[in-house]
Write a structure and sequence with these properties.
H-NOX domain, Muramoyl-pentapeptide Carboxypeptidase, domain 2, 2 domains, 16% strand
Length: 316
Amino acid sequence: MDTAREFVFRHFRRQHLEKFLPGLKKLGLDQLPHAVACAQYHYFSNALGGVKTEYWAESDRKAWVRYPPPRWIWRGTAVCAVPDEVNAAMLHGWHGHNGVSLGNPRLGFVCTGMITSGAPGLEGYYYEYDRPLAPEERVRFISDEESMPRIDVGRSPKLNGVEWPMSRREKVYRSYAMEYVRTLVPTLIELIGPEGMREELGRTARLVGLQFFEECAKRLDLPLGRPSPADFAGFLGRMLKAQGEDVTLGEKDAVVAQHGWKLMGGIDFINRDDASGAFKALNELWVGALAAYDRFMVLETKCEFGTDWEIVWKVR
């Protein structure tokens, strides 16, 4: 559990340092009182990513944010296996560092409930104290003392429709989930080493491919009765395009070529082996998907990493 807790902490701290301050400006929140700005940031950024959220400002110094069930991050029955300490590490990694990033040592986060302990969702409030906070005071946990009041959802703040058209929102929706995959790779390398990353991430990716292939195939109307290498190649190409990748499909054979790798955009791999290991691990997603489609088919993969990525898959 110690490794899981440390991973979640580092993962969310990495995301915070990359995304928080630029995100405040993109959302037009950087001029608001700090407690309000932070709560609205989580409200808007998570809602854009498809996460159920609620927001209410009690004052300029106290603003609530709530994530009702079902929790997006701990999907389905996975929430039953997440210890409180691991869930709390997310708050220490991100929410507790907002005041530091804003240069406001008096700003902290008070968590009033976590779904992992049976509360109806994750909730809490940003609060600006009258004194600077010690590091261990930046996140506090209380229960049965306060809870977010019932709110009128119709009166919640809205994003400007001109500045945030549907096309932009759809890209954010896609990127929100992909960001978790993008930043977990360097975090795992840092925490358990390149080999540990390849083994653990590869195992997980393959299992996800096995478990979720059928759901994705049905959404893309992929015929499941008579497996075909060309049909699976078409499925793979559509999935990669939906991810935002630059993909071409072979006209006569079951070949998919990808130019570049946007999923890993901005990740500065220390060496070529780490980059190759990250690809091999994440490629297990498609290996698992193909095994679920037809366990006798094989996915051949060639990956070249120079100034950019060139990747080719062949299904046979």
